[in-house]
Amino acid sequence: MTTTEATLSGITIYTDGACHGNPGPGGWGVVLRFGEHEKQLYGGDPSTTNNRMELLGAITALEALTEQHPVTLHTDSQYVIKGITEWLAGWKRRGWKTSSGGAVKNEDLWRRLDAVAGAHTVDWRWVKGHAGHEGNELADSLATRGAVEFGGSTGAVGAPKQGSRGGRGRPRRRSGSGLRSGGAGAGRW
To answer: Which annotated residues bind Mg(2+) 1 (predicted)?
Structure first.
């Protein structure tokens, strides 16, 4: 397999969350890359926590995929990495309780992430935040944009928006990309 074939066989994702105050207005950002294609998504909530935004970034990224491809998901959130790779199985085994018997924080989002991640083969990778990693820096910028744009509004979490490279408005499916288009999730490709 050539390098180009290897690149085209999998999807690379970068996610990040941001929160101005904790709780406070927050946002999430996603960068999806498949071959030469790139899609940027972001959204937010006027009153949330950083951990919820980190989770929503990963959830939204995986929900945007329509076809099964190997996925490499990069995040600077130890909470997401440890939760999905170390803690989740125990929470489920204990009926969604922590090892000390308490309720799992953000259980609603962990259940969503578990369901959507189960549909794909995901290689979860932690990257150090704010360390010059291009994909993570871009996801961070999108998360901050989401916090700013959605932070002053009221109501539910905003629907995904496309970043500058993806354009605004109704997304279009790119042939063979494996990313959703149209529908209720405006950020689907």
So the answer is: 16, 54, 76
Which pLDDT score is estimated for 54?
A: 98
- d(CA 143, CA 150) in angstroms, rounded, equals 10
Picking from 100, 59, 102, 50, the residue whose alpha carbon sits closest to that of residue 79 is 50
Which residues are known binding-site members for Mg(2+)? 16, 54, 76, 140
Catalytic residue among 54, 57, 137, 166: 54
Which residue among the candidates 140, 146, 166, 187 is catalytic per the annotation?
140
E-only strand ranges, 37-180: 37-48, 70-75, 121-126, 161-162
Catalytic-residue membership of 37: no
Residue in the structure block whose two tokens are 């397999």: 1
Instruction: Give the integer Cα–Cα distance in Å for 47 and 62.
Output: 23
- pLDDT number for residue 184: 34
Q: 45 catalytic, yes or no?
A: no
Domains and CATH numbers, the chain: 3-162 (3.30.420.10)
| Separation between Cα atoms, residue 163 and residue 150, nearest integer Å | 14
At 166 the pLDDT is 37
- Flag residues of the chain having pLDDT under 70: 1-9, 152-189
17 tagged catalytic? yes
Output the known binding site. Answer: 16, 54, 76, 140
